[in-house]
Design a protein that fits this description.
CATH topology: Rossmann fold
Number of helices: 11
Order of helices and strands: EHEEHEHHEHEHHEHHHH
CATH architecture: 3-Layer(aba) Sandwich
Strand content: 15-25%
Radius of gyration: 17 Å
CATH superfamily: P-loop containing nucleotide triphosphate hydrolases
Helix content: 40-55%
Distance between the termini: 8 Å
Number of domains: 1
Largest sheet: 7 strands, parallel
């Protein structure tokens, strides 16, 4: 097993591909492993509100030129993971921020590793997004693709146009299995962390069992992938 060092993880990708969902699942995995974690949320929709009592979550706008505070975290001794939920549909501005802020240089100087975590749907935009991120960060970052089966039973364009290139540069992929829309909406409506939903008696047992299996499947997909373990700072 690799010895993991400090790691910044950015969830990136098109809008409505499951970025916040994946972050929520990861937060609970980090909590289980007692990781020292901080989360930055660029989204204004409070999608991470249910986790505010579990982890430090700060709002941030990466495009307002006032993001120095995130660089201060690089010298913090009390952090293992910095998790960043970036907005969708702003790939050009995100890449511009990476270059202009000299983020890659700062991370390297302070001994942090960088991972881009991108959930994908069947849409071509997901491939274009990932391509731009890789062209910007090149081999200065690691890449994890999450195939989100909520949107499609197959990822033909990704498999044909992107998968081979991702693997060549050392990237890897994991799976987020499909969860019925009614089950997902019921889970989100509780306003609770996902693992607590499995114990919520307001949701019928049949649905809770599917939610529990959905969470387990994602965790198994990560923990059975040594590269994903390394790139996401897991043990």
């Amino acid at each position: 097993m690799w010895k993991n060092s400090k790691r910044m993880i950015w969830t990136v990708g098109d809008s409505r591909v499951g970025k916040s969902t994946v972050i929520k699942l990861l937060i609970e995995m980090y909590q289980t492993q007692c990781k020292k974690l901080k989360v930055y949320d660029h989204d204004n929709r409070d999608r991470l509100l249910a986790y505010k009592d579990l982890v430090c979550i700060e709002k941030i706008d990466f495009f307002d030129k006032r993001t120095d505070k995130i660089f201060n975290d690089f010298i913090a001794d009390d952090l293992d993971i910095i998790l960043v939920d970036m907005p969708g549909q702003y790939i050009d501005r995100i890449c511009q921020y990476i270059v202009e802020s000299e983020l890659l240089e700062a991370l390297a100087e302070y001994g942090w590793n960088l991972t881009f975590l991108q959930p994908i749907s069947h849409r071509t935009d997901c491939i274009n997004y990932l391509t731009q991120i890789i062209q910007t960060a090149t081999n200065n970052a690691n890449y994890v693709v999450v195939k989100n089966y909520h949107f499609s039973p197959e990822f033909r364009e990704y498999d044909e146009k992107m998968q081979k290139n991702l693997l060549i540069i050392g990237g890897t992929e994991v799976e987020l299995t499909a969860l019925h829309r009614n089950h997902y909406q019921a889970m989100e409506k509780t306003g609770k962390p996902y693992s607590q939903v499995c114990l919520d008696l307001s949701i019928i047992l049949f649905w809770r069992s599917f939610i529990y299996q959905w969470i387990k499947n994602f965790r198994d997909s990560l923990m059975n992938n040594n590269l994903a373990i390394k790139y996401l700072g897991l043990d």
